[in-house]
Amino acid sequence: MSSANNNTTDTACVQRGMAVDRELEQSFPASDAPSWALGRTSLPVMMSPDPVRYRGVSASILDAVGDTPLLEIDGIFAKLEFMNPSGSIKARIALYMVERAEQRGLLQPGDTIVEATSGNTGNALAMVAAVKGYRMLVVMPEGLSSERVAISRAYGAEVLFCGNFHVNQALQRAHELGAQPGYFCPSQFESEGNIEENRLILGPEILAQLPAGRLPDALVLGVGTGGTLIGVGQAFRAVNPAVRLFAMEPSESQTILCGEIAGHAIEGISDGFVPGIFQRNAGLIDEVTSVSSQQAINEMKRLAREHGLLCGPSSGAHLLAAKQVHLRYPELKTIVTIFCDEGEKYLSEHFGNRSTTADVAFL
Description:
Rossmann fold, 10 strands, 3 domains, alpha/beta, 6-stranded mixed sheet
């Protein structure tokens, strides 16, 4: 394209931009302009009272952990933890447990972090290890989403496969390796640090985001390590002793309720055993409920289509379980749940090339 044509194109673009600015000024006179429009000449990227979330230059991606939005969907308050770096809520405990170990002298420069995981904690620890300069060994079973494996490797972690789908064998191997010199195993399924992060940071964060005058009446969550349900539950009980805690399991593998261990499609919960965190704190739980894998997947896809929320199967399961609790106990007005991980981790399994109802509607 000639220089003259380039100049003509540039001028046209500038003119269109000026026209948009004039339309905005006419639409929002200075006297009644929203706060985000004052002093601006174009539409902001983020329409919020304070569009700058991070002021100044951040030290690393780890500064972006936490401070996720809270939405009300179908009458349920859902914390969007899939928006954390590494794509899940596990970024919180990964950073917390690693820095806790550093402060206690349990983790030294040059050490290797090793952890058993169904995927998300491995992704999160691999991210933290990459930033802090540690080696990372993710020990996980086969049969889980390929994206979870790929993400850990993308962060530079080594992945060791042990067992199939359930985490039992991986857990044993991680503990064996963690006992060797130069290795550190955070032991997410047992760690008090897991509970602490959720009680001291995530729980108060949710409480601060709830509408003024509202206290949580119920918390509904699946059990992976149990740390989120127990820790956030403790934070909620501190402000409302009557809050009810509901544990959720896949209906195909109700390990807590009846000792059943089977395959299911809600990755990240019901890992083949009852974790130590849950065993030690089972008395805090009011009820155990269940959702089928197919129900969870269907709800997950609805969240993407109708709300623009691309999250994983456990998020669909959590929302369904929370709505079931609301139907059974209508007196519980403020029910909280969490959307734990991003749907990008399940593209090959659930969002592949197969036609969907939405696709067919346009044919």
